[in-house]
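queue> pop job 88
queue> type: inverse folding (structure -> sequence)
queue> payload:
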């Protein structure tokens, strides 16, 4: 039996359920305490809970993507990150918010891997494993490497201007779509940018047209 192919509208409705906001962890979601896996030191950045609740209410899946070279450098064991995840979940629970998944690059900067930002490997892996429509998604981070990773993956990018970007190495892929002073402000701008689900449907149409 031949099944009818989904229409563009049906694909758009599906994409609406599958768009995500990827979140850098240190400096964006939680206060930046360099190379510390101590859950007692974990604190959400101001307004993070309400910001994520706002995004979740609009159908965005919430996923953390983060460089964590401390493990490769011997400063902490990879398993220590689990305690940090549990503490983040505990802090977000009163806002009715949950992070769906955490993706880490645990390689050193010298390793030349495909997953350390500004490379897009973590975003592509999350997309493949979780069914995320990258053209309909955003990445929020506090460095231009985060912005570049987002654009390489086909996402839009929001830059948190909190002082953690110090190099300011510019390029065509390193210009954010929006800039904000906090995660809460970035969430408001993402919502104001409107529904991006049509981008995923158009991308699907383009791919199908190549076959």
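queue> result:
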């Amino acid at each position: 039996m031949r099944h009818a192919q989904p229409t563009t509208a049906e694909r758009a409705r599906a994409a609406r359920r599958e768009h995500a906001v990827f979140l850098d962890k240190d400096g964006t979601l939680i206060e930046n305490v360099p190379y510390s896996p101590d859950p007692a030191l974990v604190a959400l950045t101001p307004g993070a809970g309400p910001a994520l609740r706002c995004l979740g209410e609009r159908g965005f899946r919430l996923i953390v993507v983060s460089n964590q070279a401390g493990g490769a450098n011997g400063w902490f064991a990879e398993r220590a990150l689990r305690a940090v995840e549990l503490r983040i979940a505990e802090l977000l629970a009163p806002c009715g918010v949950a992070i769906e998944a955490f993706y880490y690059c645990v390689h050193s900067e010298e390793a030349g891997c495909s997953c350390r930002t500004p490379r897009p490997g973590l975003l592509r892996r999350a997309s493949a494993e979780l069914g995320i429509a990258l053209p309909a998604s955003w990445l929020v981070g506090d460095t231009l490497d985060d912005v570049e990773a987002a654009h390489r993956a086909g996402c839009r990018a929001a830059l948190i201007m909190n002082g953690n970007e110090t190099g300011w190495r510019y390029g065509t892929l390193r210009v954010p779509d929006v800039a904000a002073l906090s995660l809460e402000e970035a969430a408001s701008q993402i919502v104001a940018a409107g529904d991006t689900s049509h981008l995923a449907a158009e991308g699907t149409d383009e791919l199908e047209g190549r076959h």
